[in-house]
Amino acid sequence: MWMIRAVLPGVWLLCLLLGLAPTAQAQQQTGQGQALLESLDAPSYDAKAEAIEAIIVSGDERSRRWLDELLGGKLQRHKDTGRFVIVLENRSRNWPVIDALTFEDAGEMSRRDLDRIGINNALRGQLQSALAVLDLYTDDVDDRRDAARELLGSVDAPMVEPLREVIASEDDAEVRRLLEQALAIHRLEQGEIEAIADLEGSLNSRVRSALNSATRSDDPLVADAASAALADIEQRLRINSGLETLYFGLSLGSVLVLAAIGLAITFGVMGVINMAHGELIMLGAYTTWAMQQLLPGQPGLALVLSIPAGFLVAALAGVAIERSVIQFLKGRPLETLLATFGVSLILQQLVRTVISPQNRTVVSPEWMSGSLMINEGLSLTLNRLFVLGFALVVFACLMLVMRRTRLGLEVRAVTQNRAMARSMGIRATRVDIMTFALGSGVAGLAGVALSQLTNVGPNLGQNYIIDSFMVVVFGGVGNLWGTLVAGLSLGVINQVLEPWAGAVLAKIIVLVFIILFIQKRPRGLFPQKGRAAEG
Amino acid sequence: MSFLSSLADRDHVFDFLVPATSPVDVRHGPILYLEDVSVSFDGFKAIDDLNLTIDDGELRCIIGPNGAGKTTMMDIITGKTRPDSGSVWFGSRHNLLTMNEPEIASLGIGRKFQKPTVFEALSVFENLELAMAADKRILPTLTARMTGEVRDRIEEVLETIGLEALRNGPAGILSHGQKQWLEIGMLLMQRPRLLLIDEPVAGMTEQEMERTAELLTGLAGKGKQSVVVVEHDMGFVRSIAGTVTVLHQGSVLAEGSMDQVASDPRVIEVYLGADPDEEAA
Amino acid sequence: MWLMQPFNEGATRLFLGVLLACLALVTVLHLAVPAGHPLHVSAYTVTLLGKYLSYALLAVAVDLVWGYLGILSLGHGAFFALGGYAMGMYLMRQIGDRGTYGDPILPDFMVFLNWDSLPWYWLGFDMPWFAFLMVMLVPGALALVFGFLAFRSRVTGVYLSIITQAMTFALMLAFFRNEMGFGGNNGLTDFRELLGFDLRTDATRLGLFIATGVALALGYVLCRAIVASKLGRVSVACRDAEARTRFLGYRVERFQLFVFVVSAMLAGVAGALYVPQVGIINPSEFSPIFSIEIVLWVALGGRGTLYGAVIGALLVNYAKTVFTGVMPDAWLFALGGMFVLVTVFLPRGVAGLLAYRFKGQGFKRGSNETLSHDISKEASA
Question: pTM of the predicted model, to two decimals?
Fold first, then answer.
């Protein structure tokens, strides 16, 4: 029965809004739907405006939907039969439609037979306010908030009193605040200086445009106050955009950290240059894609399962590379670099041949799409937030493995003194394999995360390998904390530079910066000191 | 006052007028002089208030347990490591702390590393050629020609170190002991004033050790080179040493003849272990 | 005279003899044998061989720094491309008003981008002597600045490899930008003539081929002279024991810088000879994968021998031409496989095999043959 609650006061309010006397209430029960719609299909926009008013004051239960569909261009009329229908989908040649009067299924109609009931911008504005007012009475809080937001800047004198009543009976604070602002804009338009106080700090663009026009007010006091409020708002906006840049920077940085942290283990701890690291990332991403192919319709489950699967696939691939190539090139880092580069070419071509040279799209599960709204000017996309969190979790796990487990202890022992560790009964070969598997597995995890942000293709890894090396070298080889700090800060630097330099130039500047930085501090941000480091 | 008197001295050249590569001034006796030198790595004091004086032409042995700071001391003298505090003088004119490694090397301080590092891909002869004191800038090196004088000098050193027969073979095929001698030969090619030699006999056979002892004692002497040897092998030290300095935890623990320091109870405690009887075991 | 020194070496005389004989043979087979005869060498093949020879010169330049100095540059493609761009800029200016838009000064792509005037760095490239000077000076200057910074801070080994790769990557990104004024994505192309010779005629193509061969011979002799001098022995010393060399009083960083700059200039010359033969220069020459491919040529041929680099460049590029013609998909497999096999099973390359076969026949040379220990040992320290 919400329609009654919604429509009756709404109609009353709308009548005020439109400057009509609520006289036509008698019509409402007669259900002359066809006639009302007929009048909409008028040749002139003025006539249509009148027809819209007529529909509103009719109080017909169907009017909400009619107006909505009219606004969306879905309310159409059959050319021959004159039947009014609502188009559900306008993709192909034949459109599925429902009857506009009964809302019952009316089969499909050829789009050639249908005529849209056109509207112009003036009508659009009228419709939006009318719908907003109607929506102020719905039960859904989000709808009411949207409706209130819609009213910002479109309040007329007759609406003021009814809106006050709505505010008084409204439970939701946010709706009340928005409506107060809507009223304040109206008061400001009347030249009321106190209204500005109510608008301060709002980040809504309509509030800003209202304040903006107020700065051109004839009353110097109002103009000054509006300018001051506007300056304050712009300050907040700058902070917001700063926060946004920081977020994007951290997000990019977390990707860099994920891509580089596996490298920090294999390169930093083992001293092995693995140019195929990027392709291990790619394998992780393809694992996610394959998992989704295996579990169609369950992208969320597939993604969660991909985390261990991606780790395993990449780790196994890593072990294969270690056993087949790297172990023969111990202590020859430059040769290792070349050989693993060859491996990376082979892996890339393998994916191109076996799967496809084209990019594959990995679906994001529902709980990862959308965004988290911090305030009206700032919302954080969820997938990036997840990747950021994931990167931190992976980092924390790695730290735990290196600090708290037997493997970590053995890895550190072998790193510092191979011969000594061996003589103490540590099987250095086994440690090498485990370390390489760990580093490669983490690359796989990076791939799983990356599949949520970008397309999965054979070149995916190539795009990250140089960046990853830069991060590791910048952070200081052999230092996981350094990798974290370096990755995040490079991400942020990149995003800060991007607005004024452009994406490509920003990347170039960052590369040049790192090249120069390494000249200054060849051992990175957090160098290992002392004799051992110089070997 | 000494400044005024130095002004009156007609032979005196102002210090700032002395070119950096001028001959080392040993009129006052010592050729190497370390005073209150300290250095630490990550909070660990590798060298702690070290004072050491080496006289011109002296053969000095430096011993000490692992971690006593022997290698770090060498690093400081050759400019590889900068001390946190203290001063290091070569003769009474050259402040080594203001110079970099090549400058110090060209002053006449030669160093032999623990691990023999010769250029294995080059022949013994070429190793000595590269080590020779010569104009080491790029273009002179590019256009350098082998003169009779150079050849004679190389042959002379080859004879000193006893590797004449192997002169054209790659240094990579030399035995461990031979590499050590080649290293010493390379140092000699630079006509150094001070030789720093790090563990010369580690891994050598008995005969090689004897041969090395002869070589080293022949090198040191007034007007020739001063030699500083860092060594673990007590027998070897006893066979060559004039003066022995014992380092412990980055500073000098004892100094004197081998017999003197060997009977010093503090040395016995830190170097030979708390119980002297354990040495036999 | 140290430059004449290599002519006393049997191996160098043999190399030069074979090279010049090949040049002469190709010339004769192209000019004297009628088309259609099975022994005829077409103009297309001549140009292809000319391209290989410019690659060979590039490989020699890389071998000079990698084989003798132990510096694995993954950015030599950048020097090659810069030399190529310098040549390309000259060739663009030579087009004059014969371009699509008919502008007497501005190249077509600048007219297309609505540029009013030539950027300052394009000035002077209409004069051949200036352009040819820049072919060497621009890569040389980049190598000088980059090397000065890197070697002064003792950045060597894998660190240097990685930042040279970053350097060429950054340059690639930069040259892709239209704003740089080098034709962006498309690069420089549609060349017409070089020093008044029409680039599309067979005679010019043959001339370029011979010029490239002669340049390779000269570059080879220059590198050989450097390697055979005392400076060459110092380079090997730097390669095998950098710290030790420094203790002998050599300013290692200056020697590294000198050889690096010479090598970059040679790479620039190679690029300049490459561009008129293939008819285009674009940013893909800066791509890291190309630079690393050059290293493979040297590794396959056998580093530290110079002639090995030439053999490697010719072999790999011939294989590439054949493969990409017959089964393009397999090329990356083959290339990747070569990287792995050469580094694991053939660390001394084809030249190592040759030296093994012809031991004592003039290929023996102390500094090159004892690669049994590892060149990059220093880098791991």
Answer: 0.76
